[in-house]
Amino acid sequence: MFGGKPAWVDPDDKTLTISLKSVNRLKKLRKEEAEDIVNGVDYEQRLRKQFEKVYPVPSWALPEGSRKRHSDYSDEEQEQEQEHSLLSSSKGFLEKSDKLRILSPESISVTRVKNANQMAYSKSVIQSVEFHPSGQMLLTAGFDRTLRLFQIDGKLNQMMQSIFYKDMPIYKAAFSATGSEIVASGRRKYFYVLDIEAGKVEKSDGIYGRQEKSLEKFSLSPCGEWFAFLGRDGYIVLVSSKTRQWVKNLKMNGNVRAVAWSSDSAFLYSVGGDAEIYQWEVSTGKCLHRFMDEGGFRPTCLAVSPNDQFFAVGSKSGIVNIYDRTCLTTRNPKALRAIGNLTTAIHTMRFNHDSQILAISSKGRKDQLRLIHIPSLKVFPNWPTKGTPLSYVSSLTFSPRSGYLAIGNDKGKVLLYRLNHYPSA
Questions:
Q1: Residue 274: CB partners within 8 Å, gap ≥ 6?
Q2: Average pLDDT over residues 28-46
Q3: Counting CB atoms within 10 angstroms of each CB, which of 132, 328, 342, 414 has the fewest?
């Protein structure tokens, strides 16, 4: 059976006080002109009502026209206050501008804006940070058992909702393909699915036929049909997103370290501790091809570019091997480039939406993050700098159109950076 309770409100919110007169943008939350101080619970309720007014169901996550975004905050890279360009535009314009905007490998223009979760920092390491498909909302989650949702504008980044999972420190959380649900898992044999519009949390009762003690690692297919859980003994467990039930297993040799989907969800790629990468045909469950990661540096993670042209394999040594599609035609392909800028185990890798940037990070040492220019296979030399306050990077993500880069760390903060090359969030 499915269980669970509706969204839980943090009891600390009752002691929190907010002045509705302190910031112009909060004045709209007042019920009377003379009203000023409210507690955290009342504040969150008013924010949610305001959010629903601006983003009515069912298109609750879509922007109501174009809005300018501003930054009153910048770090050592850019200390002057800058007004940001519009982060919303028509699809046609975006597609046209994306085709014309080729990213230079010499430098990348980055501006720091307000921390994404400044309204409610986490009490633990940020395990997951993900943007909603609209680019207007971001989730954070971690071992404090709390999932938080923020409306991202680069300035206030108001918190919309917080959900407390009393029996599960969260290892990973992710939006569904449509953005209507959030899947959260931990070191438990069950997982949770949050229906955002209804505010309802459903708890799975595990995966029938599988004795998995932990479902902490998973990946959602771009098509929205599949949950792929990394199981024991080389098993990848495919679960239907509709029924939440087991559909099929994919079996590797050795243990599964990471998986990544093709853009059309037709293929799933996986890598094991033996440095062998598998290409699976999802419809049949057949392995179509296997190849060895050059060097065999004990892989830790895997990423496939949105255009399906590049494959990145991160390793325990800190090496990241980048391949093109010829790796799918030979058993022992040669990497296009081995990136050796990081020296501890690669923990996270993400391609941006147009496959021009690969972000890599390690949580083994402070400030271990680099951005790679994929067309030239060079690391951007100008950012991050020595003054960039990354701390220990635990998670990262790009917004859907790459206007933002969000970086979670060990301090419970999500740093937010504007990538000025891209006009849209």
A1: 253, 254, 296
A2: 75
A3: 328
